């Protein structure tokens, strides 16, 4: 049964490269079977210069509907380098009209002292706006709006000597056009309500400063260590932005083996606070499996999710997770938070043992109903 299911699960991401990988295997020392256990494994393929994962990823995010993303992801880890380099190109489309193209790069230089990141996108998102925090601005309804985004980012991160501390900065630029999908929906807003950013094109021009402490044993599916980060985003008219606002973010991810090689615990906690004249779509939202991405939005958000994974087989594992999140409006008190609870279960397969890369599926449930997520690596991915 496990082998049958592994074939169904993995074929969604690797079938499009079937002919290519057969030719590679004929001409190079590449095997897609791990000789130690006889199971499917892509480690030796990824370790070649042309190694990549042709991800065909179903999209089931409730905020944008159901669809498909095609993402060839090239992974390389030069000899002696602990962290891998990534290059990805992709396209996606969903049944609510959302579509887009994107690309990204993350690579290390000078013995992993320097990491460079870059990305670009042209995307059209169809989303729903529900209000801020517990303030029911729309009386239980939502505004359907579209975001057309063209932009990119360029950043650098420097490791402080030989420590686990990193300091970095990124520049982000975007042209964003926010329009209601139905102009008659303006009547849903209370009289005199001004929704900053709707019905116009904005320029986002931001510098993001980051201070990070990272002791994770790997970036794909961490088993031990932690990731802690404090960041400040500064979007300002002085550097070409339409509006001036700031966002302070604290993140902490913790991973701990409970029973060696068998039981693993993890927890993610984040808090974000916006200051200044932020467009409504740039306000943070609760990010939990089972909560639509824009459903719990506010000037301030905080959320935490824990996960327990049981590696009951050398290749297979099951997990359970649960989370809680809250959002506040600009003038809300702590007791006025819009709170949500989520939970679910998942199944994982160890696709690349040498890289500790697990893939699988999560079934989550929140107050808006069930949701399914396809996962490559950790659900809390941080390169």
Global geometry: globular
Mean pLDDT: 84
Spatial strand order of the main sheet = 1-2-3-4-5-6-7-8-9-10-11-12-13-14-15-16
Give the name of the CATH architecture: Beta Barrel
Task: Kindly provide the radius of gyration, computed on alpha-carbon positions and rounded to a whole number of angstroms.
Answer: 22 Å
Give the DSSP E fraction (strand runs of 2 or more residues): over 45%
Total strand count, please? 16
Tell me the name of the CATH homologous superfamily: membrane protein fhac: a member of the omp85/tpsb transporter family
Amount of helix? under 10%
In the CATH hierarchy, the third-tier topology is known as Porin
Give the helix tally.
3
What is the end-to-end distance? 33 Å
Q: How many domain units?
A: 1
Which structural class matches the secondary elements? mainly beta
Give the biggest beta sheet. Answer: 16 strands, antiparallel
């Amino acid at each position: 049964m496990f082998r049958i299911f592994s074939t169904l699960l993995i074929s969604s991401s690797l079938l499009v490269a079937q002919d290519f990988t057969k030719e590679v295997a004929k001409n190079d020392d590449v095997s897609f079977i791990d000789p130690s256990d006889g199971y499917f494994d892509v480690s030796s393929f990824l370790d070649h210069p042309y190694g990549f994962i042709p991800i065909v990823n179903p999209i089931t995010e409730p905020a944008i509907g159901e669809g498909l993303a095609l993402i060839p992801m090239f992974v390389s880890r030069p000899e002696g380098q602990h962290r891998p380099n990534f290059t990805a190109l992709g396209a996606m489309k969903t049944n609510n009209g959302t579509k887009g193209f994107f690309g990204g790069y993350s690579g290390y230089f000078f013995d992993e002292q320097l990491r460079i990141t870059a990305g670009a996108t042209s995307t059209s998102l169809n989303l729903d706006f529900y209000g801020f925090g517990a303030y029911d601005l729309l009386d239980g309804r939502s505004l359907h709006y579209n975001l057309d985004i063209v932009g990119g980012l360029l950043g650098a991160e420097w490791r402080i000597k030989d420590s686990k501390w990193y300091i970095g900065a990124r520049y982000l630029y975007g042209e964003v056009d926010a329009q209601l999908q139905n102009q008659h929906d303006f009547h849903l807003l209370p009289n005199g309500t001004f929704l900053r950013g709707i019905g116009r094109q904005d320029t986002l021009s931001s510098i993001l400063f980051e201070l990070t402490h990272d002791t994770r044993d790997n970036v794909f599916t961490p088993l031990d260590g932690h990731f802690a980060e404090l960041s400040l985003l500064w979007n300002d008219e002085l550097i070409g932005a339409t509006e001036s606002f700031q966002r302070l973010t604290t993140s902490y991810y913790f991973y701990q083996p409970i029973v060696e090689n068998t039981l693993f615990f993890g927890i993610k906690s984040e808090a974000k606070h916006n200051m200044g004249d932020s467009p409504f779509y740039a306000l943070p939202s609760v990010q939990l499996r089972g909560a639509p991405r824009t459903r719990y939005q506010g000037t301030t958000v905080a959320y935490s999710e824990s996960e327990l994974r049981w590696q009951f087989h050398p290749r297979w594992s099951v997990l359970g997770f649960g989370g809680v999140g809250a959002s506040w409006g600009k003038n809300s008190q702590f007791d006025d938070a819009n709170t949500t609870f989520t939970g679910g279960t998942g199944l994982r397969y160890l696709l690349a043992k040498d890289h500790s890369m697990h893939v699988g599926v999560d079934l989550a449930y929140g107050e808006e109903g069930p949701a399914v997520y396809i996962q490559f690596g950790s659900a809390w991915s941080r390169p």
